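Input for the complex:
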Amino acid sequence: MSDSTVEFSSAAAPLAEKLLEPARAILARYPAGRERSALLPLLHLVQTEEGFVSPNGVAFCAEILGINKAQVGAVATFYTMYKRRPTGEYLVSVCTNTLCNVMGGQEVYDQLVEHLGVGHDETTGDGKITLEHAECLAACDYAPVVTVNYDFAIDQATPQAAVAMVDGLRAGERPMPARGARLCSLRDMSMQLAGFADERDGALTDGPAGAPTLRGVTLAQEHGIAVAGYDPDTPITKTKPAPREERTSQSRVAGVAREAASKVKAAVETVAATATGSRDKADRTTGAEKAEDPQIRTAAARNPDAATPGEPPAPAPGGPPPPSAEGAAAEAAGAAANPPAGDAKPAGDEPGETVVSENTGSADHPTAEANPGWTGAQPTDEEKK
Ligand code: FES
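Predicted:
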């Protein structure tokens, strides 16, 4: 599309008047014909003006991209960073996900609810603070974590520290966060998220990883634990689609694995049915395979006891109960479909070894159908049953 030709509707026109220039700059980052990929930064741009994605913002994005409002709405309502209601100057997010919760995140959140008098996704009367409880904020090593406008504001937070911080923000202070850049307003942050540089003093910082992040490495060093032969300078193998002939051979291997798994399952079912005295049922369901399948005959010859009618073996005292027939079949099928790696290393660790992309239908739109090798490695719905 060419935005110079867009006649904005009355809903979109006020935003177009203010945002057309940066919106054009965003569109210019994308190849001709692919401008609709600019929707995510455009939605952040809209939030710089309105503090949330309003219906007018949806109209502006739709009209400048030449798509419909339902398409914009589908994206804007999918991501939690696009707000659907007016948001305060500071979005305070308290992680209450598993690890932060265990470490006291819920207490921090509850204390803020009580202190601010607002709940999740609500804003204080002065328009300063919007509170939300968040899913994992990707800083579990510093749990519990509080962010302000997506900057890490308090590591290993306590209710007292969180209350002191929001009081400071409401009083017009910009406290230095535990890590990262100096806190900014949500609109400033939205401008960064739209892809524009933040010229403020101290807007950007960088530094080494902190002690909690390095705790695992430190412990390993203290205890002399190292991965044998590990070279930290080993170049990372690039992921690329496997050649077609390689995929075909993977498909064949997967097919053989499936066939073997189904035969093992049939054999285990036969043995289990016999052991529990259900000979009639076993004969009805697997009699033909038993008479014809050489693998079953071989299994019976190797382990004649398994075919002996009688009670199943008693579990060892204090030991785990014997697996059920269904469990044994599932385990055997899983083992057949997942042969162990020879050296316990993930694929691609060896020099020259190719990591196979799981979806290689085409460069732009990979599909499982186009990569039968991958499809074969995953159980189908029918196999799961
Ligand atoms: S669980 Fe809170 S940051 Fe991961």
